[in-house]
């Protein structure tokens, strides 16, 4: 009598016989080999792309920008670190210079302090960068500010401040660098948007609007720049553990000053910076760096907008209730 165990082991033997007597095994090894080779070539191309590249990073004084500075520095990029706080930029430069030796040659970063809300300062900063380096390979528009407030309470100045920092500033900086990129037929514009560039959640009107505008502008830019071989990467992260909520502006223009639970529980900026490096190295066009729920919410907004709007209205009710209690 044939037992269940014997039947199973007979089946195993037959499957193994089939695999070894046919071309499946060599085919399997072949596929794994080709895949590994592809990955190796991709990594090599990525490293070569960023080594010695002139990379401008805005908002390098803290959070994601600071971590991006570290990973691009380690990759051998020639960095231009931007922010408003000159001392913080100098401190980061010293920290990078003191970091342990890497496999590739590293370069002392150059720093430029300017306010993205000041169009004149953007023009001057761009002239300084181009005079110093001659060209820019990669611009990472990372600097940004968030906001918390109800639309009815929010002053127009607050709406403007958020739009200036998150939208008009990056747009002006990008436009100032584009002519030199077009001339070289080479360059890469990166922008750190947000999941809120794809969906809008209550009490974030100015922030979500600025990020939606960012997504739209840089999508247009990608299409227009294709003829010059200039790359455009839009990166949309979910919550990251930085000071974004602490630095957020409120309805009356004052600083929010609170580390929100969602922010505190967000991804580590170190990990997100690594993902940014990979996205840039692979010349990705549009990247979402978020958990499953925010990613699903983007599909829900497109496929079942009615349901998405109900969920957001209920979120607004809950938030209002918890504020009033
Ligand atoms: N943290 C999060 O949960 C998420 C963040 N993001 C995006 O990531 C980006 C980085 O934010 P994050 O690191 O989290 O926040 P941080 O508040 O830690 O960093 C913001 C950076 O922007 C700079 N900045 C702010 N305003 C200006 C200005 N007017 N001119 C020039 N620089 C300015 C700040 O530099 P300084 O003060 O020196 O000027 C600082 O370096 C932002 O675009 C944000 O929208 C996207 C999704 C989620
Ligand atoms: C098919 C089932 C789909 C279920 C979807 C349910 C809808 C859940 C809503 C989820 C909302 C996620 C919001 C994420 C927001 C976010 O990640 O923002 C990133 C930021 O920029 C953070 O800035 P903030 O200043 O708001 O902290």
TrEMBL record:
Q: Which residues form the Ketoreductase domain?
A: 53-238
| GO CC term, one of those recorded | cytoplasm
Instruction: Cite the Gene3D superfamilies for this sequence.
Output: NAD(P)-binding Rossmann-like Domain
Query: What sections of the protein cross the membrane?
Result: 18-41
Q: Which InterPro entries match?
A: KR_dom, NAD(P)-bd_dom_sf, Sc_DH/Rdtase_CS, SDR_fam
According to the UniProt entry, its GO molecular function terms are:
oxidoreductase activity, acting on the CH-OH group of donors, NAD or NADP as acceptor
Do you know which SUPFAM superfamilies this protein is assigned to? NAD(P)-binding Rossmann-fold domains (SSF51735)
What is known about what this protein does? Answer: Putative oxidoreductase.
Please state what the protein is called. Dehydrogenase/reductase SDR family member 7B
Q: Which organism is it from?
A: Lynx pardinus (Iberian lynx)
